[in-house]
Specification:
Length: 362
């Protein structure tokens, strides 16, 4: 088959769909990527897929610009004649679905998370629901990364139960993210992610100050500032935070394994996720987890088993769960560590996840 993967950026495709692409190519499919090019383009081409650059803004709508994208996709389809479209992220799902339904091309949409459209104003949410309803037909299969997002789509009448499926994220390479034992010497709480307001990083940073006088307890953040994003935390603002709060900042690294290995507990404060990649990778390395009680953490973080969940956007609730973790014995923390690894290998190993995904799309 000629399979098109339509997503918002090269970075997104490479970081979340790399193993799927490898599997599709090994199964003798021809894979084309439609996305905005960035520094990950070379990595994608090394996988053996073809790349078609398409510049568009995923998180905003402009009729004229989106119409141009629409026409370009139609031209691409006419030239390469795809058998299957795999759409990821809101705009590719909407535009890709409308075109594929019109051209009678098989389409599978993956809702990786409901994102800013459902976190923003009521009007924005209504517009998103309206567009999804126009785009997604009963002939389209829809894959969700968690059950809550599926429930919302069913409730709003966007998709039907018979064509809606749940696959918990893109999985994790448990051989690459190997288990490592917790250190007894120092307790390090780690935040990994983009420095965006809706990732809840401020709750993590503020919580760190409650423990500034505690010995052998540190708070680490690793990620990139978002100077050019509306929802982003800028470099200058981060500098002011470092003077006021008790945390260490590390610049983003492609390989997060060393810092996860160094940590004792990984914290996710996000306001909404499909299925948190950071939590999956950290669980695979045997890290206890503390996460906001969002849909993207359910099924990954279980209270008193491999970590704790706290009330969304609640600094005090987060502080209490950090305290609860600190009061555990090393033996109990190590048990949580092993439980995280067990979940990752038995439920979220990418080979299992991709097999499940392929059964749905083929």
């Amino acid at each position: 088959m000629v399979i098109f993967i339509f997503s918002k950026s090269s970075w997104n495709v490479y970081n979340f769909r790399k193993s799927l692409i490898k599997r599709l190519i090994s199964d003798k499919h021809k894979v084309f990527i439609i996305a905005k090019k960035d520094k990950n383009l070379k990595n994608l081409k090394k996988l053996g897929c073809k790349f078609i650059n398409l510049n568009f803004e995923n998180d905003s709508f402009n009729f004229l610009k989106d119409f141009v994208v629409f026409v370009k996709i139609l031209t691409i389809i006419k030239k390469f004649k795809p058998d299957l479209f795999l759409n990821f992220n809101i705009k590719p799902v909407i535009i890709g679905s409308i075109i594929c339904n019109f051209k009678n091309i098989k389409v599978v949409n993956t809702i990786t998370g409901l994102g800013n459209a459902f976190l923003g104003s009521l009007l924005l949410k209504k517009i998103a629901i309206f567009l999804y309803k126009i785009a997604i037909s009963d002939n389209n299969k829809v894959i969700f990364h968690n059950y809550e997002d599926k429930k919302i789509f069913l409730k709003e009448g966007i998709s039907k139960n018979f064509n809606s499926f749940v696959v918990m994220g893109s999985g994790v390479n448990t051989s690459y993210f190997k288990y490592s034992k917790l250190s007894k010497k120092k307790t390090i709480f780690l935040f990994v992610g983009r420095f965006l307001w809706n990732k809840g990083i401020m709750e993590f940073i503020k919580a760190s100050n409650h423990f500034k006088n505690s010995e052998n307890i540190s708070f680490y953040t690793i990620g990139e500032c978002a100077d050019n994003i509306k929802n982003g935390i800028t470099s200058s603002f981060l500098k002011s935070l470092k003077k006021k709060y008790n945390f260490k900042y590390f610049k983003f690294s492609k390989d997060v394994r060393p810092i996860i290995k160094k940590s004792t507990c990984v914290v996710s404060t996000s306001y909404r996720e499909g299925a948190s990649k950071v939590l999956l990778e950290s669980a695979s390395m045997g890290r206890p987890l503390i996460s906001s009680n969002i849909s993207g953490a359910k099924g990954i973080v279980f209270n008193n088993y491999n970590g704790y969940t706290f009330s969304l956007s609640n600094e005090l609730s987060l502080k209490n769960k950090i305290n609860k973790f600190l009061n555990l014995s090393y033996k109990r923390k190590q048990k949580m560590s092993k439980n995280s690894r067990f979940l990752a290998t038995q439920k979220f190993d990418e080979k299992r996840v991709i097999n499940k995904y392929l059964k749905i799309i083929t």
